[in-house]
Write a structure and sequence with these properties.
single chain; alpha/beta; five-stranded parallel sheet; 49% helix
């Protein structure tokens, strides 16, 4: 049986991991030099996969304790604590009876969350949001536990910009004040909202200013992706037209998740001895578009008519540099430059569009393609 080499989960086997040698070396160097890292990339380009890949390298796996959480879905500090506490228990405390006992004795504020599995007689940790009455105190307990680990700890927090949306206390200042005191624990702050992440870490008015080493993650170059894909097809006794890969790469702006999904599907559909063509790649892209149509429609439900007009104009031009220029406003029959400016601000806040090098574009290429249809 041929194993599909285009793995869709972030945990990709090393032999099927495409490139990222420079970025992996930089991340490993920062970890082994006890640095905090801010990892910024567009969404779906592969930052989570890179973190998993580096965590699985012998130099990290054998010498560090690694914890990874994704907080995109969280809406409060309590939820953040729930994710972190659960991940630390599952990743570290379960390793041995000694570590479990230390976890139980250290996290006294969550004593009601511990129990024993009646079938296996192993400790369990069932944390409910309602049990987190003192999140700041619980956070201190979790950090105290990490500081007592026998090996250095590395905690990766994916979609870190989400903490700016929590109500209540200034979570940035709270976290920064505690993190800077840690000696056995370092962090990877990963985020896809580039504007917000840059502001958090490189504005001298924010608590995390210059507290982490920057690592930017851009799309994998076309020639590298092409060589990788062609080799995987040929290893399985199949073939693929380089033009098919180029078409997918260009229409999806080099976004790893979508290209990998198309290659995954076309690999499965290509028989041994056959060749995947552009037409088959386009058919696979059409199926992907149909599968995501409902998600896209739901996303646009939160956008006003005026904001949609600006969004559709950006999608039509693909990249827009002078977004409030008379030419852009007139050509797309928009109301005014001030109306465009107001809509752009809201679309940026929703991460529906992105700005890079003073150029605006739709954040999700699949959304752009759907709009233009």
């Amino acid at each position: 049986m041929n194993i599909n080499p285009f793995v869709l989960s972030p945990a990709i086997p090393d032999k099927l991991f495409c490139d990222r040698q420079t970025e992996a070396a930089a991340l490993v160097k920062s970890i082994t030099n006890q640095e905090n890292v801010v990892l910024i990339s567009p969404r779906r380009v592969g930052k989570t996969g890179l973190i998993y890949h580096c965590f699985n390298l012998p130099v990290i796996r054998d010498n560090y304790v690694t914890v990874s959480i994704d907080i995109l879905h969280t809406t409060s500090f309590q939820e953040f604590i729930k994710e972190l506490g659960t991940a630390v228990f599952n990743t570290i405390a379960k390793r041995s009876e000694k570590l479990t006992k230390l976890f139980v004795t250290t996290l006294r504020s969550l004593s009601g969350s511990f129990g024993i599995d009646p079938m296996t007689y192993t400790p369990t940790f069932d944390l409910k949001l309602g049990q987190i009455n003192m999140p700041e105190y619980t956070l201190d307990e979790i950090f105290t536990y990490l500081e007592q680990a026998e090996k250095p700890c590395v905690v990766a927090i994916d979609e870190f910009q989400q903490i700016t949306k929590y109500p209540g206390v200034n979570i940035e200042a709270l976290l920064r004040g505690r993190i800077q005191k840690l000696t056995n624990t370092h962090f990877i702050f990963a985020g896809s909202e580039r504007r917000m992440m840059n502001e958090m870490f490189f504005s001298d008015k924010r608590p995390f200013f210059q507290s982490a080493t920057l690592l930017q993650l851009d799309p994998i170059e076309l020639n590298i992706y092409t060589d990788f894909a062609v080799q995987q097809f040929r290893t399985a006794g199949k073939d693929i037209e380089p033009e098919a890969i180029e078409w997918a790469y260009n229409i999806f702006d080099g976004v790893t998740m979508y290209i990998h999904k198309l290659l995954h599907d076309t690999f499965a559909d290509t028989q041994s001895g056959a060749t995947c063509t552009i037409a088959e790649m386009q058919q696979s892209a059409e199926q992907l578009l149909q599968q995501n149509a409902k998600r896209v429609q739901e996303l646009l439900a939160y956008v006003t008519e005026q904001q949609k007009e600006v969004l559709y104009a950006i999608a039509a031009d693909r990249y827009v540099q002078r977004i409030t220029s008379a030419d852009f406003v007139k050509r797309h029959h928009l109301k005014s430059a001030s109306a465009v400016q107001s809509a752009v601000k809201r679309l940026l806040d929703l991460d529906i569009i992105t700005e890079q090098h003073k150029s605006f574009s739709v954040s999700d290429p699949l959304l752009r393609i759907w709009i233009n249809r």
